[in-house]
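Lab notebook, bench 4. The sequencing result for the construct came back, and we need a structural model before the next group meeting so we can plan mutations. Quick request posted to the team channel:

Model the 3D structure of this chain.
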Amino acid sequence: DLKPENLLYYSMDEDSKIMISDFGLSKIEGSGSVMSTACGTPGYVAPEVLAQKPYSKAVDCWSIGVISYILLCGYPPFYDENDAKLFEQILKAEYEFDSPYWDDISDSAKDFIVHLMQKDPIVRYTCDQALQHPWIAGDTALDKNIHESVSAQIKKNFAKSKWKQAFNATAVIRHMRRLQLSTGSDGVSPTLTRPLQTDLLMPEEDPAACCEGGCSQNMDSSADPLSNCSYRCHPASSV
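Done. Here's the predicted structure in token form:
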């Protein structure tokens, strides 16, 4: 279940390596093997999972594209208060590089995201291809400091973020059927009603307690949790 909340610093050091957490729904698979269990977090899940099609590790590459999008602008590529409309956006891979938030982002970075967020998993970038992209391996990133603008957007969009909460795998399947997302469907029926949030989502956690061992310790109660969190992102200067 790849998402920003599951990317943590290994230590408090400035050059700390990044750790991936929350492997509760993970599975070790061989090359070419496929899976079929619907699971994940709404805003990060690949179209083929929502469409209840067999899927491969290509879904993780999609999630990396979504995470990259968020890290460069501070808000998710897919969002709607109505779950059916959110699913429809993802199924159609409908997203934009909105101005002014993307004006200072290089075309190379946008190209990197576009290749990772391909609706068709066959043409979607693999991990090896992503690592060889000029934005990662080359010198095509712009020398821009986007830390302030991205931080402002993250604070705004993560404050009350329904989309960041994890789905229960069983609830996903149940609500997929309720939304009538048939296998191979490219969209969602416009007559569908919104699923019950209480059935769909995990309970909201206390922001001050979510970073146990990190921002919740030795922090002034009046301070901004995001600014003090030991797991916050370092400033970015090459985009």
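The chain has one domain: 4-24+33-228.
Will bring this to the meeting.
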